[in-house]
Amino acid sequence: MADGVEVSALREEELEALLPLIAAYQTFYEVEEIDADRNRAFFRRFVAPSEDGEMLAARAEGGAILGYACLYWHFSSTRAVETVLMNDLFVVPDARGRGVGRALIEASAAVARRRGAAWLEWATAPDNHTAQRLYDSMTHEKSTWLEYELDV
After folding, report:
1. Domains held by the chain: number
2. In this structure, is the dihedral angle defined by the CA atoms of residues 60, 21, 125 and 149, taken in order, positive or negative?
């Protein structure tokens, strides 16, 4: 784990402090209309305990949030098992390269193990090479699946 960094479930009273990080993540992925009220309502559902998923926060010694992971409870019908989808992973720019992302992934894997999930899964943009270096260092095998989206 990164020195001086603690990762655990986001507390309800920390949600407001997390919203700017969520907006920064959305900006990175070129979301055009970032709406704090919509984000507040949407992400509140992942504050533990939750039937939908879990928000993890990485905190510096003083309590400042350095990054987060948003986990969705997910399923695999091919193996008939529960999985955990790490849908979002974000670390503030000043904390990158210090092990915060790795700590968040390790904590996400621990949550998946506690739930009895078969695996932790995630995806990233094809051009997000910085994230891919971290991900490649943590897993011995990349997925060969392709993802598709259909606007509805």
Report:
1. 1
2. positive
